[in-house]
Protein backbone atom coordinates (compact mmCIF):
# COMPACT_ATOMS: atom_id res chain seq x y z
CA UNK A 1 0.00 0.00 0.00
CA UNK A 2 2.84 2.39 0.81
CA UNK A 3 4.49 1.62 -2.53
CA UNK A 4 1.36 2.70 -4.41
CA UNK A 5 1.19 5.96 -2.48
CA UNK A 6 4.89 6.57 -3.13
CA UNK A 7 4.54 6.06 -6.89
CA UNK A 8 1.58 8.46 -7.01
CA UNK A 9 3.60 11.03 -5.09
CA UNK A 10 6.59 10.57 -7.40
CA UNK A 11 4.33 10.91 -10.43
CA UNK A 12 2.92 14.12 -9.00
CA UNK A 13 6.39 15.55 -8.35
CA UNK A 14 7.52 14.57 -11.83
CA UNK A 15 4.56 16.41 -13.37
CA UNK A 16 5.30 19.54 -11.34
CA UNK A 17 8.97 19.41 -12.35
CA UNK A 18 8.08 19.10 -16.03
CA UNK A 19 5.63 22.00 -15.79
CA UNK A 20 8.20 24.20 -14.03
CA UNK A 21 10.76 23.55 -16.77
CA UNK A 22 8.47 25.22 -19.30
CA UNK A 23 9.35 28.64 -17.88
CA UNK A 24 12.98 28.08 -18.81
CA UNK A 25 11.99 26.81 -22.25
CA UNK A 26 9.92 29.92 -22.97
CA UNK A 27 12.74 32.26 -21.88
CA UNK A 28 15.43 30.45 -23.88
CA UNK A 29 13.17 30.20 -26.93
CA UNK A 30 12.44 33.93 -26.72
CA UNK A 31 16.12 34.85 -26.58
CA UNK A 32 16.98 32.55 -29.48
CA UNK A 33 14.22 34.00 -31.63
CA UNK A 34 15.24 37.55 -30.66
CA UNK A 35 18.78 36.80 -31.79
CA UNK A 36 17.58 35.23 -35.05
CA UNK A 37 15.31 38.23 -35.65
CA UNK A 38 18.22 40.61 -35.06
CA UNK A 39 20.34 38.72 -37.58
CA UNK A 40 17.53 38.74 -40.15
CA UNK A 41 16.88 42.44 -39.58
CA UNK A 42 20.55 43.24 -40.08
CA UNK A 43 20.59 41.14 -43.24
CA UNK A 44 17.41 42.60 -44.75
CA UNK A 45 17.79 46.15 -43.44
CA UNK A 46 14.41 46.19 -41.73
CA UNK A 47 14.61 47.68 -38.28
CA UNK A 48 12.39 45.91 -35.73
CA UNK A 49 10.17 43.80 -38.00
CA UNK A 50 11.75 40.38 -37.68
CA UNK A 51 12.73 40.93 -34.04
CA UNK A 52 9.16 41.67 -32.98
CA UNK A 53 7.63 39.02 -35.22
CA UNK A 54 9.90 36.18 -34.16
CA UNK A 55 9.72 37.20 -30.49
CA UNK A 56 5.92 37.08 -30.56
CA UNK A 57 6.05 33.76 -32.43
CA UNK A 58 8.32 32.33 -29.72
CA UNK A 59 6.03 33.54 -26.95
CA UNK A 60 2.85 32.22 -28.54
CA UNK A 61 4.43 28.90 -29.49
CA UNK A 62 6.00 28.38 -26.06
CA UNK A 63 2.91 29.35 -24.11
CA UNK A 64 0.73 27.29 -26.45
CA UNK A 65 2.85 24.18 -25.93
CA UNK A 66 2.87 24.77 -22.17
CA UNK A 67 -0.92 25.05 -22.15
CA UNK A 68 -1.28 21.87 -24.21
CA UNK A 69 1.09 19.97 -21.89
CA UNK A 70 -0.68 21.26 -18.79
CA UNK A 71 -4.07 20.32 -20.24
CA UNK A 72 -2.88 16.75 -20.85
CA UNK A 73 -1.25 16.46 -17.39
CA UNK A 74 -4.22 17.88 -15.45
CA UNK A 75 -5.66 14.40 -14.92
CA UNK A 76 -2.44 13.08 -13.35
CA UNK A 77 -2.17 15.64 -10.56
Brief sketch in words of this structure:
88% of the residues lie in helices and 0% in strands.
The residue-averaged pLDDT reads: 85
What Rg is obtained from the alpha carbons, in whole angstroms? Answer: 18 Å
Q: Can you tell me the number of structural domains?
A: 1
Flag low-confidence runs.
none
Work out the strand percent: under 5%
Global geometry: elongated
Spell the H/E element sequence.
HH
- The secondary-structure class comes to mainly alpha
Q: Care to count the β-strands?
A: 0
Percentage of residues in helical conformation? over 70%
Major beta sheet, specifics?
none
Distance from N terminus to C terminus (CA atoms, Å) equals: 19 Å
Provide a count of the helices.
Answer: 2
Question: What can you tell me about this protein's structure?
Answer:
The protein contains 2 helices and no strands. It is an all-alpha fold and 77 residues long. It has one domain. Helix 1 packs antiparallel against helix 2 (49-73). The model has no long low-confidence stretch (mean pLDDT 85).
Question: What are the main properties of this structure?
Answer:
77 residues; 2 helices
Please specify the SSE layout and strand pairing:
Elements (H helix, E strand, L loop, with lengths): L1 H43 L4 H25 L4
